Amino acid sequence: MCWGDGLAVPPHIHSIGGDVGRYVVRRSLQAIPMLLLISVVLFALVNIAPGGPLAGYGRSRRMKPQKAEMLKRQFGLDKPLPVQYVVWLIGNDWMRVDADGDGIAESYGTRKGILRGDFGFSFRTRRPVLGEIMDRLPNTVYLMSVTFAVVFILAIPIGMISAVRQYSFFDIAVTTFSFAGQAIPEFWLGLILILVFYTGLESPFTGQPFLPSGGMYTLEADFSLWDRIRHLILPVAAQALGWIAWYSRFLRSSMLDVIHQDYIRTARAKGLRERTVLSRHALKNALIPLVTMFAVDLPYLFTGAVFIEMVFSWPGMGRLYYQAALQRDYPMLMATLVITAGIIISSSLLADIAYAFLDPRIHYD
Amino acid sequence: MRNPDSTEHRPEGLATDVWRRFRRHPGAIAGLLVLSLLMLAIILAGLSPYDPETSDIPSRLQPPSWEHPMGTDPLGRDLLTRVLYGGRVSLLVGFMVVVISLVIGAPMGAVAGYFGGWIDNVLMRITDTVMTLPSLLVLILLSAILHEVEVPLFQRNSPMTIALAIGLLSWMTTARLVRASFLAIRERDFITAAHSVGASHSRIMIRHILPNVIGPITVQATLEMGYAIMGESGLSFLGFGIRPPTPSWGNLLSNAHQHLARHPWLAIFPGLMIFLIIISVSYIGDGLRDAFDPFKVLKQVGEI
Amino acid sequence: MPRNRSLKLLTLVVVFALLFISLTGCARKAEDTPTPTPTVEKVATAVPPTPVPTPEEVATAVPPTAAPTEPPPEPEETSITIAVLQDPPSFNGTVTDTGYELMVQELVLLGLADIDPWGNIFPELAAELPTVENGGVVIDEDEWTMDVTWKLRDDVYWSDGEPVTADDVVFTWNAVSDPEMGIWAPGADYTGSAERIDEYTVVFHYTGVYPAYLYQFGGESGPHIWPEHYCDAEQGFTAWDANQEPLSNGPYLLKEWVHGDHLTFVRNPDYFEEGKPYIDKIIIKVVPDPAVLHAMMLEGDADVEMWVSEMYLAEYQDAPNVNVTFSPYGRWVMRLIPNLAKRGSIDPAEPHPILADVKVRQAIRMAIDVDTITEEIFYGYPDTVWTEMFRPPYDVCDISRPKYDPEGAKALLVEAGWTDEDGDGVRECHGCPNAEEGYPMSMEFAIYAEYGEELELAQQLIAENLEAIGFDLKLEKIQGSIMWDSYEAGGLEQIGDFDLNMWDDGYPGLDPSDSLWSFYYSEAAEPDWGWNVGRWMNEDASYYIDECYCLDEEYRQEVFCELAKILDEEVPQILLFTAIDADAYSTRVEGVQATINDIVTWNVADWKIVE
Fold this sequence. Notes:
The complex is a heterotrimer of chains A (about 375), B (about 300) and C (about 600). Chain B has about 300 residues and is mainly alpha-helical. Helices cover about 70% and strands about 0% of the residues of chain B.
């Protein structure tokens, strides 16, 4: 198999299939301590990064020191790090805290901890972190699903044709395009697209800019599918280019591996039409590694792309994280990181399951 | 009966073999040419009459001309000089990331793949854990940390710290590749033979297995260099990478962002450089991949 | 066999497709804030507009408006879009200070009084401004405390029909000053308690004499008045729901807030100023990329941009559909902060080897070519500043501008005992007062990272100026959050770990007292007590700063001028120039005026569409 396998390592081949269920359970159980360990590492990282959350607070930038003092206490930043971690994990409503700085801990804390679903409050807005995330998450999923849909609709046929007509002009053009597509920085491309299609071009019908400069839909207008599509075109294009390049190439190499296998020659020898051979036999098998590759990229569905969201004013998760990183909004950072890690673990599990599901040669011990 | 003096079928070393196949790949050759040219230009950047960091206010924001082939930046500095010096930084970051990736990933993968068992398990768990960290997100954090905290041997705001940050999150693929290769080769006959002759583990790993792993590692290295350069530019765009006045392609692009409408050359040239380097590196990687695969031709004609 | 596999593949595809569809379905999430239906009749308060306000009308001034014309009878709904770089964190301008929350706060909440761009204070919720003359302010000469009585208007209502009363004022003050909240509002150190006298009268009992009492509840940095019956005191000022879903008594009502994307406001039909606001709808759109925002302004998709940077100004001024408004005065003064104490020490008794000598600081001031910086890097927009007393009403002191004289600077350095004996271009100490013989004139010069490119350029130019007179500088760019962190957290300035820093700052409102205290008072050098991080100790200056906490304006002017003289001679900070405060607006809007005393939406009720 090709080198790309290194990214989604198939499990050891041992006994007959049917142990998938047990494998899933085992992997899920393994995931829990891993997630815990990751949360500790992330917590450490987040807190080592210098510059506290108090910094993001103002144009006047230099706070009255007393104000900084009280804010620290409010956020619980005056406790040692391990204590902060424990509070983050299991809350502090079972212990007494000192809320007004007089040195006496008199009231119970208000936090329940992440294990009970309390992700804390954003330092920046004082709203529950989960609320902020749920505001943005659907927007990211929306954009990324459309992007991935476009990517696959284009990449699969391109990859297939490329493989079948290897070294043809089409193939070489596609290879060039694919390398080029991955070599252009996204943020740069995004801005160029806006300059061309928004500032540069005008619609011949309305005289308005050809495509909007960003946002998900035209504000204060009724819902219109066409409006949504117009707003999707540029951000999807800016992102899809790189993905199409990557996936078409990947499919091409996967197809090439498959095409030269014995059973394809057998199918041909049986007298089946070339098209049937290709689509029913070759493509399906070539798609298997693609599916597992996609499962590795699945987390992007939820984390989005910071650059695209910034340039196209898309209110999504990527921007939320970036802003939180700039302002050291610890609860937000931790929540996003841990949730993302969870998604990554789940999709990697999904990848393995999909692989086993689709490829009967793989068995689990 | 073969003529021992004929020039065909002479037993050749791996390197010559690979090179011969590589040569047949037009894209890869082109890539190698472009890359060499760029690297030459970058190394010779010191020959420029302009200093990359001294300002020259009267000449600021000039479009490309004979005096300044790429124009000048907002401080009047020659853009070509800055782009070339920036290339040093970006290439350095690229190389260092590859080195760090190899230094961490290869031994890990080798040991895991060779010894198997619980060693494999532990090492792979560690690899999985790091792989599970959301990379861009953690990269932002890491670079914020490494920028301000005094790390021994690494200066603040140097390309090394960025390379360290990126490298710490890139070694996993190399590890897995190496492990996969070691796993596959470990069971082969010639390894068993070596064992029976009493060769030590390290000797076997280095002398026998490693040469077979060079292929995928090299390909991966070229890819990673591309990712590293792209990663550095992205980080700098967000403000977390190399900080001015030291030029890097990433921060040149980032500063040019706001000037794009009026002074597009500020963004076009660094962007073009990134584009050229990554595309060359991709082609080279592609060529290497084909060159290292001895069965490629046989596969193509359906022999295997 | 193939059929089995294809079935499996199909299942997977269908699952993903379903996932995609279901999530697209809930992509549009609008948060509709229920606007309570008002049940009160329209208020009929006539507000005669004053074209150009004069300082004499401070006591009984009415809110100045834009050029008076009757509101155009627009049959269609008028709407403008304000584009901003960031989502406001909340509506509470006292808890956070990014500027964006202040901007939206102006749309829905009123203060007791406000300041116009020319420095005149006018009442909003107050019926008249309390002064010593009209008996609103009573000073106890013996105790040196004061009482301020505010009489409120009786015709302002919250949008749910409840009247705005003294209870709201008292409630707001109690919420703000609650120690558990950890808020520090201006005047907090001097304000004691608030007392309700009757439904529309409040008395504030001060523990000292606080000169800026008039705009303590309003303007840019003072808390606005919050509704007692609506805000949940349990949740606390920093976290109550009203911060996200406010109850409005201002010109606009919040209709919708899609976090991260936009806010929509509609006209408040029961706003107390008759006929206003003129514009029916205001949309605040979040556009994080400045280049895209810029493009939107030029295309006309955005009508107002807050805080335009110098770089885009020239282009806006050329553009036919965009106007730029500048605030009449600057506020943010870019300045050099020398550390007069030994680096790393917080003890003023340990002098900095180079900067403790006033001659060296004067030489630095003489060597900097400020005009080139303002002309070349900031496109000629900033004003040069050389004294703290450059803003009205205190711009009356007679301090002349220091000359740009590099040769004079060199001579002064020689006089101070710094010469370059070894010819390497860097001076060493030969007979200087605070360093050892041969100590090189070498130090670190840092700026803060968040400002952007222009500040780096300025830093480089200044470094060139200083290197030309014999300094050796190591340039640094440090994150503001690290530079200004507290002493305990190792904030570089508070712990004294710096040589020469450069940043901008300026006081809000009209009264420099607090700011002067914070920078120049001796006690302010205590770690985490103030921002006298240079550790400058000057008894006379501290005396004058104490003296300025009174209400006698004439005396205050004298005191400020004496202080200005000392600052000019002793040079504890080197003032360079003010950054501009400019906003851009489309030509279809009229009435937008930038101000340093408040935020651009200060007069949003007066804005009109002209098409």
